[in-house]
């Protein structure tokens, strides 16, 4: 039995061969179609993620996100959110791996890094929500929180709107100033701005911050464009929120996963009856979104395993197309299926002498 492994170099090769736009466009298309089917009741939803919230000096969460396609496969993503990683360890804030298990046998089909996948699918989800709920003539985008996720948030939006100006804010001035370099491939006019200016002028805003639980909001309430649409993607643990409650209560609030959003998204600040339709429902019935394009709308994006399952399908399809990835025998298969010690790699002939002390030590 062999498992296809996609490592860092494989992901880099896909970006190089397909291009940023090609990857994002494929992700938006695949996720849009899948959400439409989910909203129509043709596909199965995911359970909420679960895991461990770290306190004290070890901020963040480590979680597992499972999704099952009956008869097809099970996707399981292990993901960590560690907001101190960049400064303390020179590692990304979000790290993870993703696995695909065959539904009928349980064997491991594929294993991959989930960093790029998570960024792409989150940006694609915001693009789909923006296409449905933002005014089609919106041109000014605001970014609050200019870290890694902000890159794919803006990139996704450029695939569905004619973006002409970008206002960016981050509490770290260096990160905000560097954002223009990281999105230079989009050829946009990027300016630094304070949150109140972002709120007042932007027609679409993305919040993607590492604000601590209980220390939000990161966007003030106040005067804004009447047709403002907000993609809030930073709320991903209990107590962590980015938007002010009065703004949420004036808006149509669309969620990706209702149960998750009420527990750890912006919707933890609302009662259940104040939460609007899911993104899947709007994808299946886009006419329900059209009537809200002229008013304040919010997409509460907590990220759910269904998106990861679809995104992994996209990347595995590209791997097949490009011949990318390595096949490894990760899972053991004993010759005698009833004897776990009969793994072929450890069988010895009768002529073999005893192992040395070093060779027989545990590994």
From TrEMBL:
The lineage of its organism: Bacteria, Bacillati, Actinomycetota, Actinomycetes, Pseudonocardiales. PANTHER family: KETIMINE REDUCTASE MU-CRYSTALLIN (PTHR13812:SF19). Transmembrane segments: none annotated. GO terms for cellular component: cytoplasm. Pfam families: OCD_Mu_crystall (PF02423). Signal peptide: none annotated. This is Alanine dehydrogenase. InterPro entries: NAD(P)-bd_dom_sf, ODC_Mu_crystall, ODC_N.
